[in-house]
């Protein structure tokens, strides 16, 4: 692997403040203020990533750059969804460098491991704190933090054909960017989708992938579903398990 020049490590990454370490307001926006979903996301993050520091060190010491890139790529997406801005920014920086063929600096990897430890500790404290009341409220989104494009469906206005496809395309864009707001859009779409339809089955599967921070799996599922015959089939009844192997979404 070649080693292109490294830009300087940003000072904000070196000494994150509390909001950069973990911003609960960001997580509230991602989940539309649904406290059980917020808590579940945080628990899953802690369970999946609390042991990543030795994995990062092992991959780096063995110069296993593909393995290291997979780890930083996963951290980048997970941190974005949970609201860990400093960790996500540094993981994204190292991930982009590895993709470009640049070996990470020792200081970068040490800082990533330190940020990961601090973030996990902060999230564990947040889980132990008495929850703030979020029932019935959705924090206002700052400029640039709202979901772009067409509005998400409401419970009283299920998606029609053209609107459904526009919103699914919007969702694809969020998944491609590993944007944590994809989960809120999926949840809103589920609320406006009729029970027993293939669309609801797809949305349920996407929600489960996003709760695991698996943006790549969610994107693959959505891309497999988005085809020329999708629109008329998403409103059909879901297939019985014994029919699923014979016919799936395109």
Question: What features would you describe in this structure?
Answer:
By secondary structure, this protein is mainly alpha-helical. Helices cover 61% and strands 0% of the residues. The chain has 13 helices and no strands. The chain has helices at 11-14, 18-21, 24-31, 35-49, 52-61, 65-82, 85-99, 106-128, 161-176, 181-191, 198-211, 215-225, 230-233. Helix 9 packs antiparallel against helix 10 (181-191) and helix 10 (181-191) runs antiparallel to helix 11. It starts with 10 loop residues before the first helix and ends in a 17-residue tail after the last helix. The model is unreliable at 2-13, 135-159, 231-236 and 238-250 (pLDDT under 50).
In N-to-C order, the SSE pattern is HHHHHHHHHHHHH
State the shape: globular
Give the overall pLDDT as a whole number. Answer: 77
Could you tell me how far the N terminus lies from the C terminus, measured between alpha carbons in angstroms? 39 Å
Please count the helical segments.
13
Largest sheet: none
Low-confidence stretches: 2-13, 135-159, 231-236, 238-250
Annotation, overall tally of beta strands: 0
- Report the sheet-strand fraction: under 5%
**Class based on secondary structure composition and strand pairing:** mainly alpha
Radius of gyration: 20 Å
Helix content: 55-70%
